[in-house]
Amino acid sequence: MSSPVEFLELLAREAATVEFEGPLVAARAAGLPPDRLAELEQAKSVALRVRALLERRRRRESELSGLYDTVSDLAGLRDLDDVLRAIVHRARHLLGADVAYMTLNDDERGDTYMRVTDGSVSARFQRLRLPMGAGLGGLVAQSGAPYVTANYGEDARFHHTGEIDAGVGEEGLVAILGVPLRLGSTSIGVLYAANRSARPFVREEVALLVSLAAHAAVAIDTARLLTETRSALAELSAANTTIRAHSSSVERAAAAHDRMTALVLRGGGVEDVAAAVTEVLGGALLALDAEGRLLARVGEIDEPDRADIVEAVAASRTEGRSVRRGPLWYAAVVAGAENLGALVLRPDDELVDADQRILERAALVTALLLLFRRTVAEAEGRVRGELLDDLIARPLRDTDALRSRARRLGVDLDAPHVLVAVGDDAIAATGSARQRVLSWATTYASARGGLAAARDGRVVLMLPGLDAGGSARAVARDLSRVTGRPVTAGASGPSNTPAALAGTFQEADRCLTALGALGRAGQGASTVELGFVGLLLGTVGDRGEKDVTEFLGATVGPVLDYDARRGTALVKTLEAYFGVGGSLARAAEQLHVHVNTVTQRLERVGQLLGVDWQRPERALEVQLALRLHRLRAPAN
């Protein structure tokens, strides 16, 4: 028999709603009176209300448990992106929604933008930006109050825009619930739950999402503060590292300054400066002079291309600082407007500002050392030049005192020396060019244990050795490279006594004049190589080469022209003929031709020069002319 107790049993085993109709059906079938049926109907109604209450409490318990789990999860997260993803995922799970998403306010642009989604499939929806007051989300962000719609597309309460409606439509959303994310009185964004079918969100779901949003806002703010704290700590750590590095670099700079100051005071050189820089900064370094020549090298480093050096040094001078080109740092070595060279550093590590200052200070110290070295060299050059000037002056006085002065300079006047006179073609009109040539000559002679001086418009070098011609050619070649123009050098000697040096200089000077007369500008030779012609031409005066040309033309000009036009060997035959004392047979033997050939050639000479060309006075002139012609074009 059916009784109210059966409804209690159904409640006890959590039966489905439809099962509560069973006792009434059985009672009607049993034919119970109406009063009993009414009692059972009332008992069923109470039982269903109790069941609904229990169901709501179970759901509320589940929601509270989920909310508690969410808060616990959020408390353990530290990264802001992780926090946002966890909030949206848990909102979707707790409300059983198809999609959950979050927008955050953009204070700079004055709107709200999609920050993170869960369950979304539309890229357009995920990129939405909502103006304040537009759409459901824009209205929630602006008002700070929850809004819900069972069918967004048909809800006229919201300001619809084409962009928002298109994104919502592409995602397929119909029912949407949005609640604000609030920190105190400030709204920072909106948390949403949405379904792709029309259904209302009940008050409990709204309250649940509001509670989740409240915890979420706190978690977001906590994560933001933690991120800002981490950033601040990172910045402090970086600042501390920078301060330590700066302090270390300042200490290095002070140590380098003290060390380079000590180098200058104790007379150190460029090599010592280069070593000091690399010990402080590490790496390898080159010190170059103004011409790009190596002054010092420390460590393994290749010399850059000359064009790269010129460009980098010019940039360093313009900027007044060291400059970087690839892995290399360049610091110009300058004194005022004068370029003295460069320091080229390849550091092991990156250079900070203080390290660059060390390199630049080293360049300044290098400039001081080079200027000091130049001053010392110039002073020594003046002393050496004055000694040479006294040695080649006439009359020579107090040779013992001269020997003593020479010994102090490391020169032995009783050893063989040659004197080389450099022509005016090496010296431009400006005084600076003349000084440059004299400075080069002083350095050149000093490096070889000799002397140099300016004398009577010439630059004179006294060099140890026996080969006057070789010395003249070496001076002409090397000085031509320095000046960029041909240089003529005449030499004489060797001389073994101080007393003979003045005469040796006069011979070297005459040899220089003879070279000019012979048209051999830009070459070097000695008086021995020119022979008697040199003695003759050494006194030709200002006419020089013009006199020689006229003499050759008047004496053997027809023969020279004939050979030039026809490719004959009349000049060679004449030289051989005079060289063997006028013997036809010996001349033929020397020329490797028949005697008749020699005879025929000499007859042709007679036709060109006249029948009296073999008379003694004419023959002497012809021989002298042939010698001059040979000297004007010496064999290589």
From TrEMBL:
It comes from the Bacteria. Residues 79-230 form the GAF domain. InterPro entries: CdaR-like_regulators (IPR051448), CdaR_GGDEF (IPR041522), GAF (IPR003018), GAF-like_dom_sf (IPR029016), PucR_C-HTH_dom (IPR025736), PucR_C-HTH_sf (IPR042070). Pfam families: GAF, GGDEF_2, HTH_30. Belongs to the CdaR family. This is GAF domain-containing protein/sugar diacid utilization regulator.
